[in-house]
């Protein structure tokens, strides 16, 4: 292996005439690219594909994923979105995003998917076939997406209790239009049937 100098390197550069070999775990250390699609080609640091689009030099270049500083030009470690050409990111950051996003993987800035996906695959970013994205199956995220569903007035008048709700009428539950963290039945806050919004005392 040209990266670690140990035996057992089974991956050889695809470029004709190049005899550099390396272990798959040594690829990042040797700045090699392995493509996880099509012919599954691998390239050494000298013959790896380069991004045609160049990152635009600007002050305070930051990775749009981790917000740490990135180089002001494309390199093995710094990549740019081919569509908007404004999204800069570290290779290891976009690789982690690709594994978590799965088939929903797209540019974190401009949301482009088609040209972005092909470029990332060509540059050696491995994309999982995960569906849905990992964050959608996270219990903490699920809890955040749940709608507040109880009456928080000091005295709830509903015979069915604070969590009872109907689609319309006096027992329809309304959320606070500002914070969405408190709710009330129409009747418990003396709201008319035509009232479509309500604000809690804290707001």
From TrEMBL:
State the Gene Ontology terms under molecular function. zinc ion binding
Q: What range(s) does the PHD-type domain occupy?
A: 1-48
Protein name from the UniProt record: PHF7 protein
Provenance organism: Pachyramphus minor
May I have one GO cellular component term? nucleus
What high-level taxonomic lineage is stated for the organism? Eukaryota, Metazoa, Chordata, Craniata, Vertebrata
RING-type domain mapped to chain residues: 63-111
Q: Which UniProt keywords apply?
A: Metal-binding, Zinc, Zinc-finger
* Gene name for this UniProt entry: Phf7
Q: Name one Pfam family in it.
A: PHD_G2E3
The protein's matches in InterPro entries, at most eight in alphabetical order, are given as: EPHD, PHD-type_Zinc_Finger, PHD_PHF7/G2E3-like, Znf_FYVE_PHD, Znf_RING, Znf_RING/FYVE/PHD
